[in-house]
Structure formats: C-alpha cells, structure tokens
Amino acid sequence: VKLDRREHPEQDALFHALQLFDQVFEHSPYDEELLTAALLHDVGRLRSPDEMTADTKTLLKDLVTHRTLRLIEAMELIGDGPAPTRHQRTALVGADNLDDLNLLLDLDKQARKTGIETTSLEEAIEILRSLDADNQHE
Predict the structure, then answer these.
(1) Quick one: which of 4, 65, 78, 106 has the most CB atoms within 10 Å?
(2) Residue 29 half-sphere exposure, CB side, CA atoms within 13 Å?
(3) Does residue 122 carry a pLDDT above 70?
(4) Residue 111 in contact with residue 16, Cβ under 8 Å?
(5) Within 13 Å and on the Cβ side, how many CA atoms surround 35?
(6) Within its chain, how far is the Cα of 27 from the centroid?
(7) What is the pLDDT of residue 49?
C-alpha cells in the first residue's frame, strides 16, 4: 500500500510497519502486544485509506488482544494531526497503556526512512510466534 510521500518518504505501508516493529523491538522485545500493534497499525489501509479506524477494528477485532486493538485505534485517531493532551491520550488507552502509546507515536514518526534494512515480514511473524509460545508456557 502506497503512502503519501509528504508524510511518509518511505512510501510503503509494510516497509513503514517493519521499521516501527524493529524500533519497538529495541525498546520492548518481550511485549508481544506492543510489537503486534507496531506491525499491524496500518492494516486498515489495505481496505480503505480514508476509513482506517473502522476497517482496522473490523479486520482485527477477533485476532488481537483488546490492548493491542486499543493502541492501534489510538494511533489512528491521533494520526499526524495536532498532538492531543495527556488527558486525551489517557482517555483513548487508559493510564496503564499511556507510556506504550507515547512510545508507539514517537517511534512511528521516526519509522519513515528510505533505504534502510529492516526485519522481514516472515522474521517479524516468527518473533511474534516465539513470544506467543513463551507466553503459553507460563
């Protein structure tokens, strides 16, 4: 899915998502939900670039955790617009997830580079599978 060059010089939603995944992995390598949110935050663009939030919820509601979906929805609602207040961000994801949302939003702005190496989609999925397997053994 092509992205607007003015906001996303990398122009490719998957490449952008993989950049964000890599950056989140550097900060929180064991947080499966946060990593999943990073990888899937633009999945709604597959069906409709203009209605991402509704499409994302439809596509993911039965596939990801409630926390993951709330983080993704908050990222989409905030988008590249004016920064919401701390109170507004807290209302979107709850106080327990505010730091994670802020991390995603900050790294999302940095994950817009061209010509860099990223984890492949297959590698990202394998990382998530290994975390899921670890969580099931606990």
Answers:
(1) 78
(2) 4
(3) yes
(4) yes
(5) 21
(6) 14
(7) 60
Rounded Cα gap, residues 52 and 13, in angstroms? 13
Q: What is the pLDDT of residues 81-90, one digit of tens each?
A: 777 888 888 8
The pLDDT tens digits of the residues spanning 31-43 come to 999 999 999 988 8
**Stretch 121-126: mean pLDDT:** 96
Res 51 pLDDT > 60: no
**Block residue for tokens 């802020």:** 102
Q: Compute and round to an integer the Cα radius of gyration of the chain.
A: 14
Residues 6+ apart with CB under 8 A from 10: 3, 16, 19, 112, 113, 114
pLDDT at 39: 94
Contact 107, 20 (CB under 8 A): yes
CA distance 44 to 59: 7
The 10 Å Cβ neighbour count of residue 57 is: 14
In sequence order, what are the residues at sequence separation of 6 or more whose Cβ sits closer than 8 angstroms to the Cβ of residue 121?
14, 18
DSSP bridge pairs for 63: none
